[in-house]
Amino acid sequence: MRKISLKTKIVTIVLLVFFGVAPATSYFVIGYFKDRLQESIQNQQIILVSRTASELDFKISSAQRMLVSVALSIPEPVIRDPRAAERFLYERSFLRMYFDSGTFLLDPKGHLIAETAWKPSRIGRDYSFREYFQATISTGKPVISAPYVPRTLHHPVVMFTAPVFGAGGRLIAILAGSTDLYKENLLGDLSTSRIGSLGYFSLYDHEGVVIMHPVRERIFSPADKQAEHMSQRIARARTGANVQGELELRDGSRTLSTMKKLGSIDWVLAASYPVEEAYAPVQRLVRLSWWIMGCGGVFAALLMWMTMGHLISPLLSLTRQIRQLGASNGDLPMVLVDSNDEIRETAEAINGLLERLRIKEIEKETIQKDAMQTWHLASLGEVAAGVAHEINNPINGIINCAQILAAEPCLSEPERGVANRIIKEGERVAVIVRSLLSFARYEGRERVPAYVPDILSDTLELTKVQLKRDGVQLHVNLPPDLPALLVHPHQIEQVFLNLISNARYALDKKFPASGGGGKRLDIKGEKIIGDDGVFVRIEFRDNGIGIPRDVIGRVIDPFFTTKPAAEGTGLGLSISHGLISDHGGRLKVESVEGEFTRVMIDLPVMTWEDEYGQKGSDSRG
Fold first, then answer.
1. DSSP state of 124
2. Dihedral of the alpha carbons of 466, 467, 468, 470, in degrees to the nearest 10
3. Three-state DSSP class for 484?
4. DSSP 455
5. Alpha-carbon 390 to chain mean position
6. 356, 396, 459, 585: which has the fewest Cβ within 10 Å?
7. Of the candidates 446, 396, 442, 440, which has an alpha carbon nearest to the alpha carbon of residue 422?
8. What one-character-per-residue DSSP string does 267-302 give?
9. How many other CB atoms sit within 10 Å of the CB of residue 45?
């Protein structure tokens, strides 16, 4: 059977997929995209209308609050003097920012007292027939009128009113501000705002009358003249719902319409966006997609054929190197691939596997060395136990004889003092022997409740003579209320012995003169609370030679040591780290070369569940 290359297979499959599946897939993808785009446009329109409505509410509320604040500041004598009232209104020039058609002051009967454009012929004119005046008189509250056309302006306006109260809460006047809907002001700005190129905003009152529209001729006209059932959509929007959908206008064009009721007044804001403009990107995308698939298919076929050889070459190189690995003896070389794709990831995975094999070999050798070291330590423990037994018996005899001698009544005080000194020193030797014997007899018993001060005290019994002889100033600061731990006491004692031994070595190297000053070893403890539980931290800090920065990360590695070959094995900190980890704790080393070394041990405190599972009880509470 004729062999077909991987290059030919891949190119053939890609072309089949491209010319077979791609058009059908593109059709459904573009259709889905079109639906999502339409939904996105509608959602964005809702956001735009809501934001514009909020801004318009803010402007209307600000204008109304400003008018009310001015009404509250009008003195009652001003109401009785038209000229004083006119000066008062002119001095409040900031009102023109909102009320570009003027501000007016009316008495409780509707007669004009003063206005900003003072005309003597209009003072005293009766405006009581106006709806905004009647609503303000009846409610005693600020009012915003529906649009109307004044006799003197011939432009549609909206009137804002605020009642003016005198002594005793009596209504003595009405302050009014007029906004021209044909000018650019707090409402007229809507007429120049655009959505895209052809979209626009419009505003309707509660009766469906157009308040604001970019086409001036439509202002003050019924909404139903723009589109069928327009007033019904406005009525639904007044209930608080966001009314949205396609709307066919009287001229036959279609728009995406969104309506929202204002919060400050019973008006409805509408945004209209022509469908043709809104969906134009979708139509362009459809045409562009078909053009790309037609031209791109031909180009893809040529490009795929020319580049496939380059893409396959790293795979061929990887295959050759893997075959060479099978024929190699001894060390396994790394696989090298000049590629930045999945082939390189495959090569890295193979290299990772080779690296793990090398690590396994190193770990195997390390375990063998650890086993041999453990055997030596066990042998040393047996020897220590034997020596302790041999020393223990004569020491007991010496103590007994000294006690008998001290009890003799015929001894003088100096002789009795010597006998007591023999008893004291003998008992100290006995304590050291018992500690050594207890340490050597440890055989992996179950963990028991223990306290750090007790473990450290037993440890110092074995080392304090050496520390004193070397001139080390020992400072121990362990709070008496440290909580109990559930540990193997002798393992923790082994860790403490190792850390004290390392500290002595570092101090002797920095201060070589025996008994010289400056040697200091601080041991302190504290309870810490972290995210992973409650721990007791024991810190050993010496001011010795420290550890070089470039090797501090390796000090817990097996067989790594900064000591000469005859003085260290490199197992002390490694074993200590393993023992602390077995107890669920942490061991951390910090050091500055030439200044200090600090080793921190965090051991979890004993929980109620731990204590419940132990035999016996904790006498220390």
1. T
2. 80
3. coil
4. H
5. 65
6. 356
7. 396
8. -EEEEEEEHHHHTHHHHHHHHHHHHHHHHHHHHHHH
9. 21
Half-sphere exposure of 193 (CA within 13 A, CB side): 24
Contact 37, 251 (CB under 8 A): no
> Which tokens hold the place of 453?
């001060």
Residue 137 has pLDDT above 50, yes or no: yes
By the 8 A CB rule, do 589 and 562 touch? Answer: no
- Token pair belonging to 608: 């109620």
**pLDDT value, residue 615:** 47
Please give the Cα distance from 583 to 347 (Å, whole number): 39
CB atoms within 10 A of CB 399: 18
For residue 274, which of 191, 193, 215, 195 has the smallest C-alpha distance?
195
Backbone φ/ψ region at 533: left (φ over 0), alpha (ψ -120 to 50), beta: left
Element (DSSP H or E) covering residue 367: helix 342-406
Give the DSSP letter of residue 21: I
CA–CA distance, 139 with 174 (Å, rounded to integer): 12
Q: What is the DSSP letter of 333?
A: P
pLDDT tens-digit series, residues 474-527: 999 999 899 999 998 888 988 998 899 889 888 888 888 655 568 899 999 999
Beta-strand ranges (E) seen in 232-387 are: 243-248, 254-261, 268-274
Distances (CA, A) of 2 to 5, 13: 10, 18
Which residue bears the tokens 């020897």? 383
- Tell me the C-alpha distance between 556 and 601, whole Å: 13
Q: Count Cβ atoms below 10 Å from residue 449 Cβ, excluding itself.
A: 19
Residue 53, SS3 per DSSP: helix
Asked whether 522 and 499 are in contact (CB, 8 A), the reply is no
Distance from C-alpha of 206 to C-alpha of 168, rounded to nearest angstrom: 35
Q: Which amino acid is at 266?
A: D
Q: What percent of the chain has pLDDT over 70?
A: 82
- Residues 6+ away with beta carbon under 8 Å from 71: 162, 163, 164, 175
- Reduced to 3 states, what is the DSSP secondary structure of residue 527? strand
Q: Check if the beta carbon of residue 546 is closer than 8 Å to that of residue 611.
A: no
Q: Which pLDDT score, from 0 to 100, does residue 56 have?
A: 83
Q: Which two tokens stand for residue 520?
A: 């200091």
Residue type at 61?
S
The structure tokens listed for 495 are 């860790």
Q: Residue 618 — very low, low, confident or very high, per pLDDT cuts 50/70/90?
A: very low
Residues 6+ apart with CB under 8 A from 560: 551, 554, 570, 574
What secondary structure, in 3-state letters, does 146-195 show? CCECCCCCCCCEEEEEEEEECHHHCEEEEEEEEEECCCCCCCHHHHHCEE
Alpha-carbon span 505 to 80, nearest angstrom: 104
C-alpha distances in Å from residue 366, one per residue of 67, 371, 562, 573: 90, 8, 18, 15
Q: What share of the chain is helix, strand, coil (3-state, %, to 5)?
A: 50, 20, 30
